[in-house]
Amino acid sequence: MFVYISKRLLYGFLVLLGVIIVVFFLFNVLPGDPVSMMSGQRTDVATRAAITKELGLDKPLPEQLALYLKDLSPVAVYDDTPANQEKYAYHKLFTMAQSAWVIKWPYLRRSFQTNKKVSEVILENVSGTFWLAFTAMLFATIVGILLGVIAALRQNSWVDHTIITMSVAGISAPEFVLAAIIAMVFGYYLSDYTGLNLTGQLWEVDLYGKRLVLKNLILPAFTLGLRPLSIIVQLTRSSMLEVLSQDYIRTAKAKGLGNRSIILKHSLKNALNPVITAVSGWLASLMAGAFFVEYIFGWKGLGSVTIAAVYQLDFPVVMGTTLFIGVVFIFISIFVDILYAAIDPRVVLK
């Protein structure tokens, strides 16, 4: 078990390192002048030189990558100066001459537009994306399993064909197209009947202070959950049909057990294994897939912040949010692998 977990952690680290390198080189070949973005077009030469040195832009690209990896590393060696202490907010482990081994949070640089730390930008907006993805996944899981069971029990009926057709459409349609259609229909044209807004935030500020507005979560969560819902419907249906054809189900029917008992206690319990496998890996995917949904619905989260940063060529914010989503995806994947190994010891032997 220890060897299995160690291998998964090593694979996760290598994947993360690959993501960091790809993201770094991708954004360093794009057009744009970071110095002008941070200082303005009419700044003096000394200020531009100081910013260039601060960002390491006066060094070759491989050396810039090494500095970026050093900033991201939780353990590093820096010159123990007040400027570095303020910049990295580190805790010293031990010192050697003028240098110090330190432990710190990964430093994701600062926004070109606001000069705010990218880590602060992420912390301010990640909760919106998390609650959107979590609500979408909860909706997709509950409704998807229910529809999948109904389709399996009504196999080859018009109900089954309708559910399957709708699930295929849900998988095929791009999320940004669905988001635009749903926003216009339910948030604009039918807003008088639905009571829903075209755009909105989870928390809104008015004369009475900050208040929670759950209705603003309905449309974006529904839109984001349509694709996983469609997949869960088909997984549940196929798994239920396979389980219902097993000998022990026929034995249970022969013993006189009611359909409700057979479905809930025998069929559904065993049919949910592949569904749980799919659901466990979808949360991180939904956080990444929420970008365009957030932008269309005006939802405050990592997605809307990242797209705004792309328009403004604010590369540190884009790089930081991309790496954050990558880290979340990798850690959830590792957690799911370890969970499988704990549930089914045969996984360790594969």
Indicate the topology:
Layout: H1 2-28, H2 34-39, H3 45-55, H4 61-72, E1 75-79, H5 82-88, E2 91-96, E3 99-103, H6 118-153, H7 158-172, H8 175-189, H9 191-194, E4 203-206, E5 209-212, H10 218-244, H11 247-254, H12 259-271, H13 273-280, H14 282-297, H15 302-311, H16 315-343
Antiparallel strand pairs: 1-3, 2-3, 4-5
Give a written overview of the molecule.
- The termini are close together.
- This protein has helices spanning 2-28, 34-39, 45-55, 61-72, 82-88, 118-153, 158-172, 175-189, 191-194, 218-244, 247-254, 259-271, 273-280, 282-297, 302-311, 315-343; strands at residues 75-79, 91-96, 99-103, 203-206, 209-212.
- The chain has 350 residues and is mostly helical.
- The chain folds into three domains: 36-69, no CATH class; 73-107, no CATH class; 118-349, MetI-like (MetI-like fold, Orthogonal Bundle).
- It is 70% helix and 7% strand.
- Strands 1-3-2 form a three-stranded antiparallel sheet, with no helix packed on it.
- The chain contains 16 helices and five strands.
**Stretches with pLDDT under 50, minimum 5 residues:** none
- Arithmetic mean of pLDDT: 81
**Oligomeric assembly:** single chain
The strand line-up of the biggest sheet is: 1-3-2
Query: What would you call the shape?
Result: globular
Tell me the count of domains: 3
Distance between the termini: 12 Å
CATH superfamily of the largest domain: MetI-like
Major sheet description: 3 strands, antiparallel
> Count the helices. How many?
16
N to C succession of SSEs: HHHHEHEEHHHHEEHHHHHHH
Percent range for helical residues?
55-70%
Q: Strand portion, in percent? A: 5-15%
Tell how many strands the DSSP assignment holds: 5
Radius of gyration: 25 Å
Name of the CATH architecture of the largest domain: Orthogonal Bundle
Question: Quick one: CATH class of the largest domain?
Answer: Mainly Alpha
Q: Provide the structure class.
A: mainly alpha
